[in-house]
Amino acid sequence: MMDNKLAKDIVILDISNVSIMADYFVICSAETTTQVRALSSSIREKVKELFGRIPAGDESDARNRWNLLDYGDVIVHVLHREEREFYAIEKFWSHACTIDEETWMKESEDMKDQLR
Length: 116
Description:
By secondary structure, the protein is an alpha+beta fold. It has a single domain (3-115), classed as Beta Polymerase, domain 2 (2-Layer Sandwich), CATH 3.30.460.10. 39% of the residues lie in helices and 28% in strands. The chain contains four helices and six strands. The chain has helices at residues 33-51, 81-87, 89-92, 101-115; strands spanning 8-14, 24-30, 57-60, 66-70, 74-80, 97-99. Strands 3-4-5-2-1-6 form a six-stranded mixed sheet. The longest helix has 19 residues, at 33-51. The mean pLDDT is 87.
């Protein structure tokens, strides 16, 4: 879902057992602020197309180096590479389980089928 817009280092964290704020964090990096915006836009479009959902929250920092898309159960973080290194979200949530992208996409497809 994200690779076609130059997403780097995609990490999916299952935070359902360590937080009540969401079930998953999807974190990815981009090299430029233009790519941060393009990735965020692509994700919004794809999630709406596949699941009929729009984010309840869509926040960006003033410099467009971090965009957060809040889908309730899934929170997507699109960060400029430097912000990702600085904030180290994965280290903060290191007690959460990491899920490989292929497994998560399969589970998402199964969920999509259930919604039909």
